[in-house]
């Protein structure tokens, strides 16, 4: 968590004014000498799930309620949600659906004397919480070992100590490339859970987050985490595309400057994922210190498709010819295999039979319809859906 007092940022008059309004609302709720702090989605969820809701108050006279389930749980989509954890009163500041404040949807306020108490309480909850065990992704052994060696293994304290001893840079940059549906998301999801299991920090940045940081001249902040861990930049085609053929050259230039200008933080791995082919990625990223390892996620081989199919429910596996399915799904991605599985189950629900051939016909018909429909804008743009944190993810990856 990071915090700011009343002498906080003044980069935008309206935004700063609302910060002061939020502080005044916190004071009126009985929070003495409040300070603002930001917290990631994971910590926010812990606070909400383990605290008691007291009241939902207006900010500068304005409050917005909502009938949506998640908003009802918090009290509304705009206002000050006052809560209590143990004997500490704090407030979650809701700016939801206010595009001007997209990057501050994770703001909270607590009394100056209670800041450390609240922080330690949330840390205790996080350490006691059972992190679900997620099976490793289905990748070739060589690819999986290479990724693990440059991420989880790289962040081991002994490894970092050895690097420091010899004056080496304790920082790695990885680029995951390849067409969608071939394991980038699954790999990142596994890394996300491994980080939480091992007590490592995690931060996820999306295209919306990048645009917002650029808009408020705070790009350096998105490279910052409190301790050893991984920063995920998810599907950032806007940052990686060749600037000579991109409409976002100004964002890309500022992004590269921020990458080079940050103070080198030891024990950090930065992972970029993109659907762009390698020849469309800006050559400036090839400079040492930006990307150290490039991993290509290709469509799965027959062996990988077999391993994936064998993870399906036992009733499905026992009622299909696995060899026939493997042979008939050449050039399928993992995502397409799962879509085929969904159609197979739908066919069973409707007819009571596991008819793989009818599922194939349905799949082909759907593919033909998609191929013939007009395509919208591909990739991220200012109205892309928000994905602020790799939840148990689709932090999407």
Outline the structure in words.
The protein is α/β, with parallel strands linked by helices. It has 3 domains: 2-128, no CATH class; 141-296, P-loop containing nucleotide triphosphate hydrolases (Rossmann fold), CATH 3.40.50.300; 302-372. The protein is 40% helix and 16% strand. It is built from 15 helices and 11 strands. The protein has helices at residues 13-28, 41-50, 69-74, 115-128, 141-149, 157-165, 184-198, 207-215, 237-240, 249-261, 302-309, 314-318, 322-328, 334-351, 356-372; strands spanning 2-4, 34-38, 52-57, 78-85, 88-95, 107-111, 171-177, 201-205, 229-233, 268-274, 293-296. A 6-stranded antiparallel beta sheet has the order 1-2-6-5-4-3. β8 (201-205), α8 (207-215) and β9 (229-233) form a beta-alpha-beta unit. The longest helix is centred in the C-terminal third of the chain and has 18 residues, at 334-351. It is globular, with a radius of gyration of 24 Å.
Give the structure's gist in a few sentences:
By secondary structure, the protein is α/β, with parallel strands linked by helices.
Compressed to H and E, one letter per element, the order equals EHEHEHEEEHHHEHEHEHHEEHHHHH
The share of residues in extended strands comes to 15-25%
Q: Which runs of at least 5 residues are low in confidence (pLDDT < 50)? A: 2-11, 97-105, 373-397
> Roughly how many Å apart are the termini?
24 Å
Mean pLDDT: 79
How many beta-strand segments?
11
Question: What class would the helix/strand composition place it in?
Answer: alpha/beta
What is the CATH topology classification name of the largest domain?
Answer: Rossmann fold
What's the CATH architecture of the largest domain?
3-Layer(aba) Sandwich
Q: Quickly name the level 1 CATH class of the largest domain.
A: Alpha Beta
Largest sheet descriptor: 6 strands, antiparallel
Helix content: 40-55%
- Give the full name of the CATH homologous superfamily of the largest domain: P-loop containing nucleotide triphosphate hydrolases
Q: Give the number of domains.
A: 3
Rounded to the nearest angstrom, the radius of gyration is 24 Å
Query: How would the global form be characterised?
Result: globular
């Amino acid at each position: 968590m990071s915090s700011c007092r009343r002498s906080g940022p003044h980069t935008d008059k309206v935004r700063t004014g609302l910060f002061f309004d939020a502080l005044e609302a916190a004071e009126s709720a009985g929070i003495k000498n409040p300070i603002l702090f930001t917290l990631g989605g994971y910590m926010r969820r812990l606070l909400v799930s383990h605290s008691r809701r007291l009241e939902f108050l207006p900010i500068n006279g304005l409050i917005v309620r909502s009938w949506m389930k998640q908003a009802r749980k918090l009290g509304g989509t705009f206002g000050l949600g006052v809560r209590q954890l143990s004997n500490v009163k704090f407030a979650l500041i809701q700016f939801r659906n206010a595009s001007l404040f997209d990057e501050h949807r994770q703001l909270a306020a607590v009394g100056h004397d209670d800041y450390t108490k609240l922080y330690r309480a949330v840390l205790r909850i996080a350490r006691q919480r059972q992190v679900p065990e997620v099976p490793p992704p289905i990748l070739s052994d060589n690819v999986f070992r290479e990724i693990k060696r440059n991420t989880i293994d790289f962040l081991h304290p002994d490894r970092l100590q050895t690097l420091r001893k010899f004056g080496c840079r304790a920082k790695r940059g990885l680029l995951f490339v390849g067409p969608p549906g071939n394991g980038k998301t699954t790999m990142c999801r596994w890394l996300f859970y491994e980080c939480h299991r091992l007590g490592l920090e995690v931060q996820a940045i999306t295209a919306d987050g990048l645009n917002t940081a650029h808009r408020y001249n705070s790009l350096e902040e998105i490279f910052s985490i409190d301790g050893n861990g991984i920063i995920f930049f998810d599907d950032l085609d806007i940052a990686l595309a060749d600037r000579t053929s991109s409409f976002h050259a100004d964002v890309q230039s500022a992004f590269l400057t921020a990458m080079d200008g940050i103070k080198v933080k030891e024990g950090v791995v930065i992972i970029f994922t993109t659907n762009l082919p390698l020849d469309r990625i800006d050559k400036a990223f090839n400079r040492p210190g930006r990307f150290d390892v490039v991993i290509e996620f290709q469509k799965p081989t027959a062996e990988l498709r077999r391993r994936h199919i064998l993870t399906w429910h036992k009733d499905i596996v026992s009622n299909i010819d696995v060899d026939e399915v493997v042979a008939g799904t050449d050039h399928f991605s993992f995502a397409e295999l799962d879509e085929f599985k969904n159609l197979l189950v739908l066919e069973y629900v409707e007819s009571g039979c596991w008819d793989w051939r009818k599922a194939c016909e349905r799949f082909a018909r759907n593919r033909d319809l998609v191929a013939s429909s007009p395509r919208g804008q591909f990739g991220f743009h200012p109205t892309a859906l928000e994905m602020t944190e790799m939840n148990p993810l689709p932090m999407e990856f």
